[in-house]
Design brief:
The complex is a heterodimer. In chain A, 74% of the residues lie in helices and 0% in strands. The relative contact order of chain A is 0.08. Chain A has two helices and no strands. By secondary structure, chain A is mainly alpha-helical. By secondary structure, chain B is mainly α. Chain B has a domain of 29 residues. Chain B is built from two helices and no strands. The longest helix of chain B is centred in the middle third of the chain and has 32 residues. The model of chain B has no long low-confidence stretch (mean pLDDT 84). The chains are: A mainly alpha, B mainly alpha. Chains A and B meet through helix 1 and helix 2 of A and helix 1 and helix 2 of B. Chain A: It comes from Ensete ventricosum (Abyssinian banana). Chain A: This is Mitochondrial import inner membrane translocase subunit. Chain A: Keywords: Chaperone, Disulfide bond, Membrane, Mitochondrion, Mitochondrion inner membrane, Protein transport, Translocation, Transport. Chain A: It is a peripheral membrane protein. Chain A: Heterohexamer.
């Protein structure tokens, strides 16, 4: 069976999509614990949704800052 | 089997042609979706059990099951909020 370029391209795309899904999943896992403290309500309070938004961005920025500290500079 | 690796040609039995790329792509998409769903629900189950079941009884009370239902909705919503915040972030 030949590995058609179309199939290779598809595999690359799916791999990237899976990586992004996994990242969102891990961030949601962490940020949920940090931001949603009580039993869940029928909607998020404004502070809970702000917390979730900020949490994800903070996580990424923290990761990038850590990379800089250990010597990777863009 | 790693879903990203292709089956080796020797694994195809003689007389059968290898599946078309379209079939392979569909199979892969289905496998990935299933794996994602399994992991997602495993996470939701543990988060919502922690929040909603404080004193396990012999069956779910009405308030426990409505808590779990709300929890699932909120967790799905949280996944969306976080996904969007990553791709809309000002830098």
């Amino acid at each position: 069976m030949d590995n058609s370029p179309e199939l290779q391209r598809f595999l690359e795309q799916e791999k990237h999509k899976a990586m992004i899904s996994e990242m969102v999943g891990k961030l949601t896992n962490e940020c949920w614990d940090k931001c949603i403290t009580g039993a869940p309500g029928s909607k998020f309070s404004s502070s809970e949704s702000a917390c979730l938004t900020n949490c994800a961005q903070r996580c990424i920025i923290t990761f990038l800052e850590a990379l800089e500290v250990i010597g990777f500079r863009s | 089997m790693d879903p990203f690796s292709l089956p080796s040609p020797s694994s195809a039995s003689s007389g059968q042609s290898a599946p078309s790329p379209e079939v392979l792509m569909d199979q892969l998409k289905t496998q990935l979706a299933q794996a994602y769903a399994e992991e997602f629900f495993e996470t939701v189950k543990s988060k919502c059990f922690a929040r909603c079941i404080t004193k396990p009884g012999t069956s779910l009370s009405g308030s426990e099951s409505s808590c779990i239902s709300r929890c699932l909705d909120r967790y799905i919503e949280a996944t969306g909020i976080i996904g969007r915040s990553l791709f809309n972030s000002p830098h």
